[in-house]
Amino acid sequence: MTRMGMAVAGIGIAAVLTACGGDDFTDQSGEQIADASKKAMGDLGAVKVSGTVTTGGKDVTVDVQTNDQGDCTGSIGTGDGVAELLGVDGDLWFKPDEAFWRASAGDSADQILAAVGDKWVVAPSSGEGFDQFCDIDDLLGELIKSEDDGATYTKLDTQDVEGDEAVPVEQEDDDGKSVGYVLVDEPHYLVKVEKTEGEDTGKVTFSAFDEDFDVEAPATDDIADLGNLQ
């Protein structure tokens, strides 16, 4: 997994598989609320993820809308650089600015910039790069841990999050503390996660649940393939 992927994964909130009893959602335990959120997020066909995490003293920004059809649009930023993302039916391209190339390509930056310019670049299908952000299952798998038997949960007082009532659930485990904000109304989506303690910290929000969005592949003349560079 890339360092960027690890950083984003580090702000996830785990959910254990427990029954969700009771008539009032806010009366349920932290474990039950987390599980309800995990199920709702698992049923999603599309979502937008935005936020910033800090890893190794550097900020990484994420602003990506993705679905279960292999489509995505948005950007990933690190330092002063930003890379646009575009995915259509599982094919993925990215377009970094000069600052992004210089921060990530090292001594090869000048060669790449000369060859690529401002064109889109074909992203490799490695499963460990940008393509993690353009598959909803992979993306949510990074952000929401599937299991963590050592975690403890504390339900906090209900709060307003962007006009919606949400229940914060604090998780504490060996990786530190994080708080997930779960919608009181069904579906019980996770709308925000804050990692407050641990190696990597930050905040990510979820929105545009199951909303359609338009994407179109770049023109052939506007695409460069780094695989052709020596």
Give descriptors for this structure.
230 residues; alpha+beta; 19% helix
Please, could you describe this protein's structure?
The chain has 230 residues and is an alpha+beta fold. The protein has five helices and 13 strands. The chain has helices spanning 3-9, 30-42, 98-105, 109-116, 136-143, and strands at residues 46-55, 58-67, 72-78, 81-88, 91-96, 120-122, 152-155, 159-161, 164-173, 176-183, 190-195, 201-207, 223-224. Strands 1, 2, 3, 4, 5, 6, 7, 8, 9, 10, 11, 12 and 13 form a 13-stranded mixed sheet that branches. Strand 3 (72-78) and strand 4 form a beta hairpin. Helix 3 packs antiparallel against helix 4 (109-116).
Number of discrete helical segments: 5
Runs in which pLDDT lies below 50 for 5 or more consecutive residues are 1-22
- From the N-terminal CA to the C-terminal CA, the straight-line distance is 25 Å
Strand count, sense and closure of the main sheet?
A: 13 strands, mixed
Q: Please bin the fraction of helical residues.
A: 10-25%
Determine Rg (CA atoms, Å).
19 Å
Q: Tell me, rounded to a whole number, the average pLDDT.
A: 83
DSSP summary, beta strand count = 13
Please state the overall shape, judged from the principal axes of the Cα atoms.
Answer: elongated
What amount of the residues lies in strands? 35-45%
Give, in order, the helices and strands. HHEEEEEHHEHEEEEEEE
